Amino acid sequence: MVRGVGRVEGALLTVVVLTALVVTGIQAKSPGTWLLEVVWVLIGLPLVVALRGRFPLTRLLCWLLVLHAIVLCYGGQYTYAETPIGEWVQGWLGTQRNNYDRFAHFVQGFVPAIAVREVLLRRTPLRPGGWTSFLIVCVCLAIAACFEFVEWFSALLAGSGADDFLATQGDVWDTQWDMFLCLCGAVVSLLIWRRVHDRQLAGR
Questions:
Q1: Is pLDDT of 162 > 50?
Q2: Crossing angle for the helix pair 31-50 and 7-26, nearest 10 degrees?
Q3: Given this model, what pLDDT does residue 199 score?
Q4: What is the largest CA-CA distance in the chain?
Q5: How much is the pLDDT for 189?
Q6: How far apart are CA 133 and CA 82, in angstroms?
Q7: pTM for this predicted structure
Q8: Is 100 exposed, middle or buried, given 0-12, 13-18 or 19+ CB atoms closer than 10 A?
């Protein structure tokens, strides 16, 4: 049996995500940009709660999803190019841009890698191993590419109004960086978490 979160822990994680949504939504610099950034949280949270009885997620995945939700909410509040944490790191490292979006795209691979792994190992005949890991990374890259398509369509529809959402900060290679960092996040996540994830899937 899958080792998931208990009722109290699950309720606590839900409250954390809801609090992040409320606080960042109220303080959002651009409500429209905030909504575009957190729409995945608004869809994902009710879905996870609704399916909890039939498809309870492992404890590891639940905590990672909360981390991802916070990253998205915080980025949406300030827009990724103007996050205070990113500006602090920019000043500390002396970089030319606010790199919070780089971190967010790393997380875009780091968290979905475990989500994809969980679905594949629980709902398909696949077993842990090299080919499964390869497929997981490919799915994460496909997700990253879909996000870039969303940004592209937003730019086509909104023109300069989508600048905050795109957060390219003048980098012509921003799309390539986004997908590369998603790839790195997925690989690192599998290297770090696969044994822990296997134990939780086995209920240990």
A1: no
A2: 170
A3: 95
A4: 51
A5: 98
A6: 35
A7: 0.89
A8: buried
